[in-house]
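Hey, I'm writing a tutorial for new members on how sequence and structure tokens pair up, and I'd like a real worked example in the thread rather than a made-up one. If someone can provide the structure for the chain below, I'll link this post from the tutorial.
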Amino acid sequence: QVQVVESGGGLVQAGGSLRLSCTASGLIFDRYVMAWFRQAPGKEREEVSCITANGGSLYYADSVKGRFAISRDNPKNTLYLLMNSLKPEDTAMYYCAADSRVYRSCGRRDPGSFGYWGQGTQVTVSS
């Protein structure tokens, strides 16, 4: 069974930093694109960032470019999202997702193209 588990969310003041972690099991981790999505109340789920299987290509949403950094540690089956200069508008439930097929590309992709999801970790940024 594939299991995806996020951690690291919490409450932080605007301008602060937070690092999210995601551990995936039950799949060959280094064959899959991994991504972070977020969803705020009343809004659609949006892709924040993704990283290809071997870390060679990255994607960031315009809203987080220059502030967030995605990385992965394949031997540990772990994905990270370092979030700096956090803003109140970053407040959302953050989800880790593994691709539905191996060795695909990163970019602006639909949530439906990802196959495996964690339960989410809440990030709240106060003013």
